[in-house]
Amino acid sequence: MKRIAILLSLATSIGVGYCQETEMWSNVPILLDAYGHKVSPDGAFSTGEAVSAESAWARNNITGEIYFFDGASCGEGNNITKDNLIVGTDKVYMKAAFLKPGESIDPVLIPSLSKYSESYAHGINWDGTRLVGVMVNPRSGNADEVNPEYQHMSYLPFYCNIDPETNTVEDPKFLPVPPRDFFGLVPQYCTATWISDDATTILGQVIDNSGYYIYPIVYKQDAAGEWSYILPSEPLFNPNGLEIPHWPLPEMEQPLPVNYIENAELKALYQNMLDEFIAGVSDINPDELLDPNVAGTDALMNQKEWNAYQNALEEYKEYYDNVYEEELNKYYDQYSRFIAQSSNFLQSSMAMNRAGTLIGQTKMVTRFSGINPITYAYPVIFNLEDGSYKIYGDELSELEISQILPDGTLLATSPKPGPTTPDLTPQHSYVCAPGSSTFVAIENYIKSTNPEYYNWYMEYLYHKVPIGYEDATEEEDGNIAYKQMTVTGLVAVSDDFTTLSGGVDGWSWDYDAGNYFTYIFTNMTTPDTGVENIKINPNTGLKVYNLQGVKVLETKDAASLKALAPGIYIINGKKVII
Fold first, then answer.
1. 481 three-state secondary structure
2. pLDDT digits (tens, 9 = 90+) for 155-207
3. Which of 307, 487, 535, 578 to pair with 457, CA 20 to 30 A apart?
4. Structure pTM?
5. Which strands, in side-by-side order, build the sheet including 410-413?
6. What share of the chain is helix, strand, coil (3-state, %, to 5)?
C-alpha cells in the first residue's frame, strides 16, 4: 500500500479555500509563491514565502500543521533548526526576527538586533546556537564595533551566538570583510547567508563598488576563535592574466566643509548633524546650513569661510573636469573589457552543505545578440577542503544552484521568467548525483526509485506551456511558442531525499486561474511493513499520528501499537504500515 501527497491550489487571496483533488497522506501548505522554499535536513519541517500575501509559511510535515507569519520573509540560507525555529525578517520594521511555529502569527523581533536601523537574519545552524545575516552599517566611529575601513559599506555581515535553551541572542559580532574589492574600491557590501552545522564556516557574497560584480566569500573561524575569510572564486576572476584595472585615486582631494569651519563648536555640530543625516536619524542636511547668505544667523560658516570653501570647490571642479575625468574614462573602458572575460556570479544564488566543505554559486556569463544582453547561468561547486572547483554546463546553460546535500547531491533550478525576458519557460528543478557531471530533470531522477511519484508528476504537472515568442520582433500579442513539459518549479528536499517540497506558478499554463501551487512528498520510499524495527527513545517514547495529522497514541510500550486499527501511521516521523 503506497500513496502520494497531492497538489492543492489557492487563488491569490488567502480567504479562498482549497480543494482536495484526491487521497493524500497529509495536508499541503498553501503557497502563493515558490520563493524561499526550504526543507529541514530531517524532512520534518518546511518553510517558504507567500510573497503575494506578504507573509512566510511553515509546515510541520509530521503533524500536518500549517502556520502563516504576517509581514515576514524567511531567511535565504539554511533557516530552520532541529527545534523548528526559523530565522527571517519582519518586513514591516525591516528587523531580524524569529518565526516561531505555534507560538505567534507575527515574527518575533530579536532584541539584540532591533537597536540597528535594519537587520536581516538569513541562516542558523542546526543546533540553533548561532545565526548569521546582514545589517545596515551603523557607521560608528567606535573601532570595537565597526572597523573604520568599513565606514563606506552600506551593509555588513554579522553573526550572533544563541542560548538554545532560551533562544536568547547575544549582541552581533561583525565578520571580517575585504576592505577593497578586486578593483581596489570599497565594496558596496558583503553578506552572510549559510552557516555550517558546527557554526565555524559561513557563506556569503561580496558586492563590488559598482554593484555589478558579485563573487563568493567564505568566513572561517579557527580553533582559537579568530575569524578570517577566503575568496574561492579568485582563480576565476582573471583567468587570462589580464592587467586588472584599478580605480584611479585623484591627486587632489575633494574639499570638505568641515575643514573650512574654524569655530570648534560649530565644526563638531556640523559633523554630528552629518552623521545623523547619513544614518537616517535626522532629515536635516547640514550642507544646506552652510551658506550665510541663505541660512543667515543660523549658518554654520561665516562669509569668509564660505568664500574659501567655494573657491576650493571651483578649483576641484576644474581639476576633475580637465584631468581626473579622463583618467576615469580610461578606467571604465578597461573595466568593461576586463569583466567581459571574468567570471561574475548571480546575487543570492548560492548553497552550502551542512559540513561547510562544499559551496555552490551560480556563475553568470553575459553575451550580446546585437544590442540585447543574454545571460547564461552555470552552477559552480567549490571544494573548500582541497581548493578545487568544478563548473557544470553541458547542454543545460540556464541553471541556478539551490541546494547541496551531505552526500554531494546537487539541486539546481532554471531561472524564473522575468517581466522583461522574452523567454517564458517556467521554472524547473534538476538534480546531479554524486560523481556525475550532468544535471537531469528531477522527475526523471526519481523515476527509477519512485515510479509512482514520477507518474504523479506526469498527471498533475505535465502541461502545454508558453516558452517564448516565435518571432522576437512581435509584441505581447504576437505568436507565442508552446511546449508540452513538466512544470516542477523550485524544489527543496531533505538530506536523505525522502521529503520533497515544490512550488509552481499555475499561470505558467493557465493565465486565467493565476494560481500558485505547492506539493509535498513526505515519504519517498516504501513504508515499513511492521513495527518490529521501530526504535523507542526511553525519554520521549512513541508519538503516533494518523494520516490527517491527528495524534492517536503516545506511549513507551511498543506492544500498544498492535491495538491500532490496520493502516498507515506516522510514528516518530516515520510512516509505518500496521
1. strand
2. 999 999 999 888 899 999 999 999 888 888 889 999 999 999 999 999 999 99
3. 578
4. 0.76
5. 400-404, 410-413, 429-432, 440-441
6. 20, 35, 50
